[in-house]
Amino acid sequence: xxxxxxxxxxxxxxxxxxxxxAAPDIAVTILGRCPSPRxxxxxxxxxxxxxxIDRGIAIYFPAPHSYTGENILELQGHGGTAVLxxxxxxxxxxxAKLAEPGEFTKRAYLNDKLDLAQAEAVxxxxxxxxxxxxxxxxxSLSGEFSSHxxxxxxxxxxxxxxxxxxxxxxxxxxDFITEGGVIDKLESIRNxxxxxxxxxxxxxxxxxxxxxxxxxxxxxxxxxxMNQLAGQDIAIVTAIAGTTRDTIRSEIQLEGVPxxxxxxxxxxxxxxEVEIFGIQRTWRAAETAHIALILVDATHGITENEKSIxxxxxxxxxxxxxxxxxxxxxxxxEIREVDGKTHIFLSAKTGHGISLLKQHLLELAxxxxxxxxxxxxxxxxLKALDGVSQSIxxxxxxxxxxxxxAEDLRLAQESLNEITGEFTSDDLLGEIFGxxxxxx
Length: 440
Ligand code: GDP
Ligand code: ZN
Prior knowledge:
Helix content is 45%, strand content 19%. The protein has 440 residues and is α/β, with parallel strands linked by helices. It folds into three domains: 2-111, Gyrase A, domain 2 (2-Layer Sandwich); 123-205 and 378-420, Four Helix Bundle (Hemerythrin (Met), subunit A); 209-365, Rossmann fold, CATH 3.40.50. An eight-stranded mixed beta sheet has the order 7-8-9-6-10-11-13-12, sandwiched between helices. Strand 10 (291-297), helix 11 (304-312) and strand 11 form a beta-alpha-beta unit. The radius of gyration is 28 Å and the shape is flat. Residues 216, 218-224, 324-325, 327-328, 347-349 line the site of guanosine-5'-diphosphate (GDP). (6S)-5-formyl-5,6,7,8-tetrahydrofolate binds at residues 17, 74, 113, 440.
């Protein structure tokens, strides 16, 4: 298989990757010879008629010492669309098939180069939008998460072996549960599991970030608040506006946690049909947020109109009233709970009270300040860890029924296996690798 591995569009360098048994033959045809293994070779990339398509660096990685574990040929040429397409077509004409998204990593997984959690971390590293997220993905990629999972599995296996051995001698008149310290071992596995879950949960916050919708009347201070939240940290990483009428999504970070902000600047009364369409899309996006910040002007308090905005966002799990412009009424920053709703009084202009808001956002997300050594994890992993936890709890209830206890331990191990992908269904693999970039 072959694919363009670099991002689409123009770039200084463009890379074509070819993986599979025929990679050396393709090298011989395009380069005139197969480059010596793992050496960067500056060489012409030739077309069918012998003319030069491009000149660049070719590297050949023979199996099994390559990313996929198969023979890999990498052609690093100029990053132009036409030249890369021509080169790709040439590889396809020579019998390579076009790689599917994530297929290189999938083959790496199938050839035991990576386990499933590591393979997922490859995609998470590419998708990471903050430095902290990238570092935690890198930790998972280098196997830190997996090694915790393996260590836990070792202990489960030892315990299972003991319990199952005892099953074979049911008539023995000894209390094997007490003898073997089974209760203590279960307890210690449970503690380790809970630490692992906590770290994984933090990792999943870094991966998924928090969806925040910012809503309010024109001039209430939405843009100013965005800028304050973003701070000096370059802040607005992306500001993609489909059209001026469309939803504006920005991404900022708080302590390395990605915050996806939907600015609802476009939510005003209108009769323009295109605009109405854009506004419907904005509402739909707003309704899927985790947190809604409803900005009001502290000089007039909450109006009926603003209450109706809140009602429309009743599906958003967390709603916070932001009373902005407190500098105009000479009041101090404050966070207050009224009728089960949080009210934060601040000034987007002076910055007073912004830290209250930031702290509250991170708290709602479940982020722990100063968390270190977090590795990236996905919802799928959290679910599996919950499954292990459930089986361990069951095991503790079944201490007097060795057969049930053994079965609970087996289920616990099975849930752990799901994380690193010891036994995995094709559906799950399709789901995981289908979301990768092509060429990775
Ligand atoms: P948006 O339309 O909701 O995005 O509002 P902007 O952020 O563009 O702000 C509208 C106007 O209100 C600007 O002139 C801001 O300088 C001003 N403004 C925003 N926040 C504050 C605040 O906390 N205090 C004061 N005095 N003015 C503010
Ligand atoms: Zn604005």
